[in-house]
Design a protein that fits this description.
By secondary structure, this protein is of the alpha/beta class. Helix content is 30%, strand content 18%. The chain has one domain: Arginase, Chain A (3-Layer(aba) Sandwich).
Length: 317
């Protein structure tokens, strides 16, 4: 509307428009990805053993992410005296992998194809789940990318080998990852309390190269001390289960576990890993928005992802 002396163009407030991640451009054709970061949704939750609903995670996190979409000048952090995610960091949203209900194999294959397309384009894959089983196809897609180390931030170890024939549920991903020749080790942080993995799983994880830290152990070490467990020079894939956070701040998840991390516990670990290591991929899983009518869990997930991306590209520059 002209004639009032206002800036030209649209104000485009967060609640206006289509909810892509951070209101970044949508790329429908995966053969044409041209960006530094590509966001993909993996709305698959048939791997859950308790409450379903993480199929709506990508939609919820995208909508929440619009809160942080003011302007295009990046986000100035006065504490760090840094502008994060300036306009020259190109982020696109490639939509969701197609999910075929009840068909884990096909759904996982579609997720893997999306991650491969992002990697082929030379972009950083950021996958929003879905339950934690979606990490399995994500890691499969790295089979031609060289060695990686996995940083898992989670309440649960997810190291079950097989239970009643199930090998690709949300209790299995870290075991499936550890079996890969190109996964050189795991740092598993936030693991606490009654777990879905039996003691043998913990023994197996350590035998297969895992470092396992609870919330209290991680706090005692501090963020620098936690990340010091990752070998120097390792390229790192980061998988974040929202139930790593205390359900007092993140109730919107299928398997909440009290005693979890608070925001800065995790943010500072991510800041250190971004500074010390090349981050090659990210997934954030198990946001089930319908269990949190306040929307706070989805906002937390979006805020963590955007800040982490800011740290990664600030370190690269």
């Amino acid at each position: 509307m002209a004639g009032h002396g206002y800036e030209s163009g649209r104000l485009n407030l967060p609640f206006v428009g289509i909810s892509t991640f951070g209101k970044r451009p949508y790329v429908e054709d995966w053969a044409t990805i041209d960006a530094d970061v590509a966001i993909m949704g993996a709305p698959f939750d048939f791997g859950t053993q308790w409450r379903a609903g993480a199929r709506f995670g990508p939609r919820g996190v995208r909508e929440a992410s619009t809160l942080f979409s003011f302007g295009h000048a990046g986000a100035y952090d006065h504490e760090d005296d840094t502008t994060y995610l300036p306009s020259d960091v190109r982020i696109v949203d490639i939509g969701d992998a197609d999910i075929v209900h009840t068909d884990t194999e096909t759904s996982h294959a579609n997720i893997e194809a999306g991650v491969r397309a992002i990697l082929a384009a030379g972009a950083l894959p950021v996958v929003i789940g879905g339950d934690h089983s979606i990490n399995i196809p994500c890691i499969n897609a790295f089979d031609d990318q060289g060695d990686i180390h996995i940083l898992q931030i989670d309440a649960h170890l997810d190291f079950v080998d097989e239970r009643h024939g199930v090998r690709y549920g949300h209790g299995n991903p870290m075991r499936r990852a550890a079996e890969k020749p190109y996964v050189t080790g795991l740092t598993q942080v936030g693991i606490r309390n009654v777990s879905s993995t039996a003691r043998e799983g913990y023994d197996d994880a350590r035998a297969m190269g895992s470092t396992i830290l609870s919330v209290r152990q991680a706090r005692a070490l501090g963020p620098e001390g936690v990340i010091a467990n990752i070998p120097t020079g390792a390229r790192v894939y980061v998988t974040i289960d929202i139930d790593a956070f205390c359900p007092s701040i993140a109730p919107g998840t299928g398997t909440p576990s009290h005693g979890g991390f608070l925001y800065y516990d995790v943010l500072e670990m991510l800041q250190v890993v971004a500074r010390r290591h090349e981050v090659v991929g990210i997934d954030l899983v198990e946001v089930a928005p319908d269990y949190d009518p306040t929307g706070s869990t989805s906002i937390l997930a979006a805020q963590v992802l955007l800040n982490f991306l800011g740290f990664i590209f600030a370190a690269r520059s």
